[in-house]
Amino acid sequence: MTSPSDLSAYQSLLAAFSTAVTSAKINYYQTKIHKSASNPHQLFSIFSSLLSTPPPPPQSSLAADDFAVFFDEKIADIRSSFTFTATLPHSPLSVPSPCFSTFSPLTDSDVSQLLLSHRPTTCALELIPSSLLQIITPDILPFVTSLVNSSLSSECFPSSFKLAHVTPLLKKPTLDPSVIQNYRPASLLPFLSKTIERAASNQLSSFLLQNNLLDPHQSSFRPGHSTETALLSVSESLHAAQAASRSSVLILLDLSAAIDTVDHPILLSSLAAMGICGTALDWIESYLSGRSFQVAWAGAVSAPRPLATGVPQGSVLGPLLFSLYTQSLGPVISAHSLSYHCYADDTQLFLSFPPSDTQVSARISACLRDIQSWMDNHHLKLNPGDTVVSSSPTAKNLGVVMDNRLSLSQNIAVVSRTCRFFLYNIRRICPFLTTYATQLLVQAMVLSRLDYCNSLLAGLPASAIRPLQLIQNAAARLVYNLPRHVTPLLTDLHWLPVMARIKFKTLVLVW
What we know:
five-stranded mixed beta sheet; 51% helix; alpha+beta
């Protein structure tokens, strides 16, 4: 029988153990949060690990080879739906007088900046983790510089960097994990591969910008452009039409596996028409060809499967090449007097017209038919292909919910609801966090959402913005765990109020 003294000793030891575990958790997570202060992705992962139980092990009914076959056949099915032509169906672009024929060699300083200025993203195919690679950069720099320059000058992208490591991810956490169609591929490439790509991409982008060869209505992969500038351009046009008592139509186009079906001969022909030639064009051809992927799942790895089409997922150069591949779509849309704006593979069409115009429907239908024809010729699948365009009072556009009155009330409601969810969950783990760690999480999870595309809110009355201000007030009180008046808290945190943040963003964009 347990004596009172033994029970008391046991309870004391249990309390000491519990205190030690709690203290260890606090120190562990605070250290991780502080180290990830400038990395929102890592902060989100830490936040999720604090709140969530570990995910269940992968379904045993699915194997790595099953995913490899599924991802491969999905692209093959899309490709088989196109009618292949003997000629290259791209709209010819005028060749600029200057041509980009060779890459300039890089210095050790240039390569060092490429290695150290980007977040390490280690791939399972790498023998040396990218974080360690950055640490030993001074020792290996001459060899990496030689590798980069040798590749760019010899028209050859290293074949050892052409294998992608793919991990299947559920499209949504609520989907059935036993259904293979519910997964999408997440591709990783070696860090050194991306270093060579950045060297090529920087020089290629400079040539395109200096010669005004980029579509002014394409906002991806361009300095000073973002999803926010793309949405702002479209939104301002719609507001101007509304002020002039004109009606407007906004059409959002969705592509299926767009970057995976890019046709290499068409892409290379388009690049040549822009003045990219010689060694540079041959290097890009080498970069695209001979690629393969393998799938890692449940501790197993599939056999490599070849990639005959597409630009590499998870790559540095891929998004730029895709935007150049689709550049000839703009004239097709403009021929029907419709305006457009693109961000990567997201294309927005918009048209303003007098309410009495009876030809609008016919113009839109004709434009969509020509777009469909262009997509077929360029081996891109418009998703869904044959669906009749129907009207909707709201639509999610690059992460922002737009409504037919341009009030953004639905978007404000969605942002407020999402932020309240994160504030609730951060409050649950506050006992494990210091004030500074709590502030970092709130800024990453809540303030980032209040700031996303907030220039679209310029001009709205204070009453419309009030729900967002209430969220910021609650966030400030959570950081300090104080119920008092919020203005001193915002001042101490150096947080501008929501309305001032909107004005500040607008001034930055105008400047």
